[in-house]
Design brief:
- InterPro entries: Bact_OuterMem_StrucFunc, OMP_bac, OmpA-like, OmpA-like_sf.
- It is found in: Cell outer membrane.
- The protein is an alpha+beta fold.
- The chain contains 4 helices and 4 strands.
- It has a 4-stranded mixed beta sheet.
């Protein structure tokens, strides 16, 4: 339910990306299923739209990967990096220059309000 709400809000987020002051770069979030570094078709579309926004600028694009706390710390660090790498690859496939993309694996983070929120990648355009 929350995922659909976020996808429905995407047009407003993307519009804000074009008008957000430099001090607050836009952040677009995609979610993964547990124990996976692959996106479903809806989330892949979100990354494609994020790439459109990123192609309109010249600043850096930071891709932060997260994983939940369940399991070992080393495994979750690797999973967060794999998630971030997957999103970075999709951005590049959709026209964002690889040299603009910086991958930042954040590793395991505590469960937030909903456990799936810990299984995410944040795309920060211009950060």
């Amino acid at each position: 339910m929350r995922r659909r709400h976020l996808i429905a809000a995407l047009p407003a987020v993307l519009a804000a990306a074009c008008t957000t002051p430099a001090s607050a770069p836009p952040s677009i979030t995609v979610f993964f299923t547990e124990d996976s570094a692959r996106l479903d078709s809806e989330a892949t579309d979100v990354v494609r739209r994020a790439a459109q926004v990123a192609r309109g600028g010249t600043g850096p694009v930071t891709v932060l990967g997260f994983a939940g706390p369940a399991g070992g710390a080393a495994y979750n660090r690797a999973l967060s990096e794999a998630r971030a790498q997957h999103v970075a690859d999709l951005l590049a496939q959709n026209g964002v220059a690889r040299e603009r993309v910086r991958i930042v694996p954040r590793g395991p983070v505590p469960f937030e309000a909903v456990p799936t929120e810990s299984r995410r990648v944040e795309i920060r355009i211009g950060s």
